[in-house]
Amino acid sequence: MNRMFRLGPVLRARKAQEDAARGAVIQSRQEIRDAQALVKRRQLDLAGADAPSEGTARAMVASMVARQSLAASLSGAHRMVGEAEERTKEKVAELADAAKRRRAVEMLSERHAETVRKHDLTVEQNNIDEMAVTSKARNAARGIDATTEERANALRTGAGSIADRAAAAAAREEVARETALGVAAQRPFIDLADARVAIERTRSQLHLAAKRSPEPAELEDEGNADDDHGSRA
């Protein structure tokens, strides 16, 4: 897949055209302000040039000509304002058209970027799935359960998030509990009541044996021992 947007140069050109159109709009609006300022100056000049009420005919004619010139200049200033406004409207329309053309290419760029992102996510997910399948197959070949191996890794390294560490601690407790139960199940059961009865029975037998009279054989052995002692004396 081609990761580079092929219309990148076109998009840059459209942005440059939009910037130029925006600059033209700014300039035309400045021309409107200049024309309006000229109108104000011409109005002030015309208001200051009052017609003379007295004087020679030549002076009066000259004053009237000057006022007519100022009036014509004022009219020209108004015309300049109108023309500047018309040019501004045209420049604004050109700016809007340039923005639309730039946006059209920009949408294609965004669509291409989204396609690349989805492709990268798909490739990454496929790699993860392949690694998981490979790891599972390797563990199966070694006879290791994947869940047990994952828990063992968490117990050994202590890695993972807080939830993973909590799950690992719970797994350790479960393993310890199962081990203790297994050891307890393997031990023989000892009934303390039976042991106490056996001890009491043994004590009774020993007590009776100590109290009973000596057997004839034992007495004969003791007599022989006394005779041997007397003969030696």
Automatic annotation (TrEMBL):
Keywords, in A-Z order: Cell projection, Cilium, Flagellum
Task: Tell me the InterPro entries matching this sequence.
Answer: Flag_assembly_chemotaxis_eff
Q: What's the name of the protein?
A: Flagellar export protein FliJ
Region Disordered, residue ranges: 207-233
| Top-rank taxon | Bacteria
What organism does the record attribute this protein to? Answer: Couchioplanes caeruleus
